[in-house]
Amino acid sequence: MDSLIKRYSYTITRNDFVTAGKSSSDIKGNLKAIGIDAKTIRKIAIISYEAEMNIVIHSMGGKLHCDIYEEKIVIVCEDEGPGIPDIDKAMTEGFSTAPENVRELGFGAGMGLPNIKRYSDEFKISSSDNGTIIVVTVLI
């Protein structure tokens, strides 16, 4: 079993577009500082940004964790409600439930979950009306 080397944890606030993206930027800087290769950093940056924005836009808030192991990086996103009613539909490129005011800010194009899955080596998602949990693994 892999032992955890380092965990970075962030609290993400609903509708906070002022600090949105800060957590994923911090993760990117931390990975760079510990010598993770550029290709892996790019994948993690995309995954963590999309996950962070989904929490900001679609949930009541949540947590984002970046766990670093010797051979992999695991991103865990846990948000509080309302959940995703149809995960298959939400995984379709271009499908979005983002409100108009969010779209006017340039977000909500319906690429969040598809991009998270695209850049991960392992992708798991579960959702209920209590919230959504996404666990993504990227091999180093």
TrEMBL record:
<protein>
    <submittedName>
        <fullName>Anti-sigma regulatory factor (Ser/Thr protein kinase)</fullName>
    </submittedName>
</protein>
<dbReference type="InterPro" id="IPR036890">
    <property type="entry name" value="HATPase_C_sf"/>
</dbReference>
<dbReference type="InterPro" id="IPR003594">
    <property type="entry name" value="HATPase_dom"/>
</dbReference>
<feature type="domain" description="Histidine kinase/HSP90-like ATPase">
    <location>
        <begin position="30"/>
        <end position="137"/>
    </location>
</feature>
<dbReference type="Pfam" id="PF13581">
    <property type="entry name" value="HATPase_c_2"/>
</dbReference>
